[in-house]
Specification:
CATH superfamily of the largest domain: MoaB/Mog-like domain
Strand order of the largest sheet: 2-1-3-8-7-6
Strand content: 15-25%
CATH architecture of the largest domain: 3-Layer(aba) Sandwich
Shape: elongated
Number of helices: 16
Radius of gyration: 28 Å
Length: about 425
């Protein structure tokens, strides 16, 4: 399998002024033709950094973006020309393209623009239909380096028009298939223990990667071989087995979100949802309403942060709060049941907890959270203890609540 390294050039990336989106996009295009990206590097536009990066690389091909502008701080072209022991020559057809492009944009040409038509003699020149900086493909007996402009819409055109066709014509590449399984409710270590036997039995051409974030762990399966269809079939068979091990934790695949999955379930069943939130402060409602079309399934929510709001807005009896505390099974169930009645919905979610960093006690430490989901026939509640980080507690509480709702909609809880 061919290996690639991606190199982004420019101090604006290194100081955080802009985000490197080029590498993610190029990685996807290379993956689709069976070339594996082994490393992504960001460097400054200096001869030393560029030279050291090429010398250190173990990839079959290096694709660089950036450093090809008309100004004096863009040194990539000169550095690569020296590295590959060639010289610059004037390309009249490239200059004609630059002239036509800039005149069409109402920009006056100057000597700096003309210098962009000076290109390395021994490099393959890659036309840039959207800009003035041509791409360049250098080759010697050790390495191939493709240098492209950093402007995304210019770089993408050159990749699709010139780089990908060239790579496909000269390379025999393996097929690569990815599929990501989205799980919720298990920490990475707990999930790994649960699927340990399954993971150990995966065939050697399928690799598993854990991609955790608070409340969610993505399981990315990657299969490498010669036939894409058979690889997809093999991954699907493994995922079918995984479903039996994680019947309640898998909520979707690839780029989906749990709120989108819930939206689709409720929309299909023509059912509705409301929320009553305390410690999550409206996060659940925000997640649901981030889905386009959510007004068809979401009727409203109440952020009852104080006890007074729970009593006055959600009709929770004061004596229940006094007897059990705001963070309790009794209160959160009353919140859910009453919210469903107030908004006349099929389901409602309620959350009450101690997000932190203060407010905990020995009996109810920071992170203690009660979640309840009410339907017309049931009210399911569960206590969680998430930890001491306020932001993660809010995220995990929201995801846990949505997963309980998902399972109730699917009739997996009674």
């Amino acid at each position: 399998m061919k290996r690639a390294e991606l190199v982004t050039i420019g101090d604006e990336i290194l100081i955080g002024q802009i985000v490197d989106t080029n590498s993610a996009w190029i990685s996807k295009q290379l993956h689709d033709i069976g070339i594996k990206v082994e490393q992504i590097t960001s460097i400054s536009d200096t001869p030393e950094a560029i030279t050291e990066t090429i010398n250190a690389s173990k990839a079959d091909i290096i694709i660089m973006t950036g450093g090809l502008g008309p100004t004096n701080d863009d040194l990539t072209k000169k550095t690569l020309t020296q590295y590959f022991d060639t010289e610059l020559e004037f390309h009249q057809e490239v200059y004609a393209h630059i002239q036509n492009l800039l005149i069409g944009r109402g920009v006056e040409l100057n000597e700096l623009n003309k210098e962009q038509a000076l290109l390395p003699k021994n490099a393959k020149i890659l036309p840039n239909p959207n800009g003035t900086a041509s791409g360049m493909w250098f080759t010697n007996d050790k390495v191939q380096v493709v240098s492209l402009p950093g402007v995304p819409f210019e770089m993408k055109a050159i990749i699709m028009d010139s780089v990908i066709p060239q790579l496909q014509s000269v390379s025999e590449t393996d097929a690569i298939v990815h599929k990501t399984v989205m799980t919720v409710g298990l920490a990475e270590s707990m999930l790994a223990k649960r699927i340990e036997t399954w993971e150990g039995s995966l065939p050697n051409y399928i690799k598993l990667a854990y991609l955790p974030r608070p409340g969610i762990v993505r399981l990315r399966l990657t299969a490498i071989g010669k036939d894409k269809i058979s690889l997809r079939t093999a991954i699907d068979q493994q995922i079918e087995t995984l479903h039996a091990i994680l019947p309640n934790e898998i909520f979707g695949y690839d780029d989906t979100s749990i709120e989108k999955e819930i939206f689709d379930l409720l929309l299909t069943k023509k059912q509705t949802l409301s929320t009553a939130e305390s410690c999550t402060g409206g996060t659940i409602a925000s997640m649901i309403t981030s889905v386009a079309g959510s007004s068809s399934i979401f009727k409203g929510g109440i952020v009852a942060y104080s006890n007074e709001a729970k009593i006055n807005q959600l009709n929770v009896k004061q004596n229940i709060i006094e007897s059990f505390g705001a963070v309790s099974k009794e209160v959160v169930e009353a919140m859910a049941i009453n919210a469903r009645k107030i908004f006349n919905t099929d389901f409602s979610i309620a959350v009450s907890g101690i997000a932190g960093p203060d407010g905990g006690s020995e009996e109810k430490p920071v992170g203690t959270t009660w979640v309840a989901v009410a339907s017309r026939d049931h009210c399911i509640s569960e206590r969680f203890r998430f930890g001491e980080h306020r932001g993660r507690n809010i995220t995990r509480a929201s995801l846990s609540a949505l997963n309980i709702l998902r399972l109730l909609i699917l009739n997996k809880l009674t």
